[in-house]
Amino acid sequence: MPRDIPRTRVRNIGIMAHIDAGKTTCTERVLYYTGLVHTPGDVHEGTATTDFGEEERKRGITINAAAVTVPWTGHEIRIIDTPGHVDFGIEVERSLRVLDGAIFVLDASQGVEAQSEAVWHQADRHAVPRITFVNKMDKVGADFGRCLTELRERLGANPVAVQWPIGEESGFTGVVDLVRMQAFGFDEADRGRTIVSRAIPDVESARAARAAMIEACAEVDDEVLAAFAAGDEPSIEAIERALRKGTIEGRLQVVTCGSAYRYKGVQPLLDAVVAYLPSPAERESEPLTALAFKTQVDRNGALTFVRVYSGRMRRGDVILAGGEKRRLGRLFVLHADRREEIEEASAGDIVAILGLENTRTGDTLCAPEHPVVLETIRVPEPVLEVALEPRSSEDRERLGPALARLTSEDPSLQTRIDEESGQTVLRGMGELHIEIAVSRLARDHRLQLRVSDPEVAYRDTFARATMVEYKHDKQNGGAGQFAKITLAIEPGAPGSGIEFADATVGGVVPKAYVPGVEKGVRNACFRGAREGVPLVDLVVRLVDGAHHVKDSSALAFEVAAQFAVVEAARLAGLVTLEPILSVEVSVPEEHVGDALGELLSRRGAIVRTEPRGAIRVVMARVPLAASFGFVSSLRGRTHGRGSVSMKPNGYERRGT
């Protein structure tokens, strides 16, 4: 594939969705239609191109985001297939951080599911323009109109259909292109390669859908507005320009439909990517600015995945990476598990750099003469942990380096040493996340470990407001340490974290020492009043204090603040908070009682139930501690006919 293609003809996109919505199958069909594979892979058979990891092939799910590059109508489309499972949200987060656009895939029979909401709002946070592909239109319960309604009502989106399905469920045979008012089907004999023109079967529905599309375009484009107001027909060029403008500005989201598994609707989806999603040229500027969004270690060494936002980088260049000078090694474009070496990368490229040691996820890469720092990547807090006990002294020696490599590649994995037992504790986003991490330690590092049962990562907060005075006064013959502070601490709003404010007057605590107080407060809250249980959701105000001209320092005030927080926790009393999951259970009508019983037995709070085609969806909030084994138990009670999706949804008081 030529590397000198104009930036305006490049699209850097991700494919995101709830698990099992069909992201990876969609990617496989794209590879097939663009000629990169002759036989499409299959997720369930473990032959998908982008699911090349051993755990992915074994489990039939996407775990790591994987990149492929394909040609289409004179354009180059670079695609990242992201995971849909809630445990691997960090892969979606760091992919969206560096992409210019995204395809949001919905299961036509399920609509907007729990993880659909999560990835949509992740894209919102990074202002990523997106188009929606309503997949599985041939599935029982498929309902295109309901998907549009849920996009609007559950996600706050402004969905604009540019295609209308011809039939649904087993009757789905093709689509109507609403921009050109043409209907077409896909020849199943040659896996949909041949697109067949046909008559529009339901002209009235298509006209109504097209009128809604033009009305949405009129809100973002003056030419379409003028034609709309005059009752005239806007040109195809004006409609496409308005759709592109609205998509890039986030004012609307184009919606297409099809069935990737049945080879229907994928080529028009690629046309929509080219027509409506932005190119990197629309974000380009000089000089070199890039972001390291992922690190990975394999048999050839450390790979750093980088998105170049502006400028150019060449092998051998000296750059700043994370604020330190580094010399660039070999550069690669990745095609799933294959590498293509290149000499240079420029704005819009997503590449891997070999040997860029000590560079971490979120580090900025830039020209030494033009230092900049980009916003880093948000890493979610772990909610589950297990203790790891090496079986031999050799395993114990190798465990530390192995975990360092694992947590470097995946920042949502964290480790700590339990002060009482001395055990190494591995923390992650869920049962599957930790299970796969432990499997990698055994397979890649040949470690033999005893693993404890999962434990929930609880949090503490104060039961009531309190005020505490603490004096740190230490004399040891030399320079002393003196700091006196008074802290007023009260419970904050759920999810607010730790808020600190300096409310002193008259210089009783010099401004130079206030950062030491804040650091001490935050360190104490991180460690918690109980070992391994952080303090959260507190408003801390420094209201009074005293200092000594010679013996006071920022360190003395930091120490005083740490002890003050611990004492305040004793006075106020603690409330334990536990992580809560939003759970959606999809079951046939005859098994609704089984689902409700299973949820209620696990301290679940039912939010609502609603019909979706031939099934009913039960939405509930369930404590993470009560969720272990839920999926297998539900499947047993429903004879394998129930499915579950979960996502983290904050913390609540334990037992409420």
Task: Offer a quick outline of the entry.
By secondary structure, the protein is α+β, with helices and mostly antiparallel strands.
Structure overview:
The chain has 656 residues and is an alpha+beta fold. It has 5 domains: 8-281, Rossmann fold (3-Layer(aba) Sandwich); 284-366, Elongation Factor Tu (Ef-tu), domain 3; 384-455, Alpha-Beta Plaits; 464-572, Ribosomal Protein S5, domain 2 (2-Layer Sandwich); 576-653, 2-Layer Sandwich (Alpha-Beta Plaits). Helix content is 28%, strand content 33%. It is built from 15 helices and 35 strands. The strands form 7 sheets. Strands 16-15-21-12-13-20-17-18 form an 8-stranded antiparallel β-sheet. The protein has a 7-stranded mixed β-sheet with strand order 2-3-1-4-5-11-6, with helices on both faces. Strands 22, 23, 24, 25 and 26 form a 5-stranded antiparallel β-sheet that branches. Strand 15 and strand 16 form a beta hairpin. Helix 6 (203-218) crosses helix 7 and helix 12 packs across helix 13 (554-572). The protein is globular, with a radius of gyration of 28 Å. The model has no long low-confidence stretch (mean pLDDT 87).
